[in-house]
Amino acid sequence: MKGGEMNSVRIICSVGENGKNQRSDVVVIQKALNFFIKNNLLTPLIPLKEDGVAGKITQSAIRRFQQVSMSMVMPDGRIDPSGKTLDKLNSKMLMSKRQAGALTESKIDLLKVSSALLPGVSHQTGNAKFSLSVKRALSGDVNFSELAKEDFVKNVFDAAKRESLISGVPAAVAAAQAILETGYGKFVPIDINTKKYSYNLFGIKGVGTAGPVDIYTHEVINGKRVKILDRFQAYNSFSESITGRTKFLKQNIRYKFLFSTKDPKTWAEGLQKAGYATDPNYAKSLISIMESWKLI
What is the pLDDT of residues 43-59, one digit of tens each? Predict the structure, then answer.
């Protein structure tokens, strides 16, 4: 891409979260993202430094593109050489080039075109709303509470399948746990004092990559359901939550036996046996969810 000319974007290695991030590839992606940003197609992001460093800001810009142009509920912040995100980026660039030509002739407001090109972009005018949009864009925040159940299931299951290729954890179990633990994304843990959003899809306790959140929860103690205050892990994104769950399972020796099988039902029963949850019907609930949504 030279002198503002929009050639097809090509990279050799993956760029973004958990990518190889070869400097020349990162610069190419940063230039492409800046094309959208400078043309108001990734509102309200500001132009990236084209320094070849795939830091948090560049990763957030990738996630923003995935959100608004691909309707990804759980953007992974990564662009692969032969992946869907790169294909979409190139197709959007071609479309915007054609739209730009039409704009020159008809003098249409560019903001209207951007809304058509990238559905989901919100153009805010008030300072408070603008600040909120910036915060959400940089954090990769998506409001799961507004999703229909089938959309939540599809997006979580798709993300879990990608993680399963690396971890060996059955995607059906991961999706069922996310459904059960968060009520289809409507009850993701939020700190009772700071209102910090945890992105924790699996009810994992402790301190996560983004620290902890304190919330009220219920546990079954001596056969009785009791309300308690507990600390749960917080993450920077939903994809990070899925990766964090894999790490949690692999680091705890009590779950080691599970990795000898890939059968979702065996995993559900094994999680309960290992004490993942205090609910005596935990395994039955997971299996019921997997069967009802035809995940197995």
Answer: 667 888 999 999 988 99
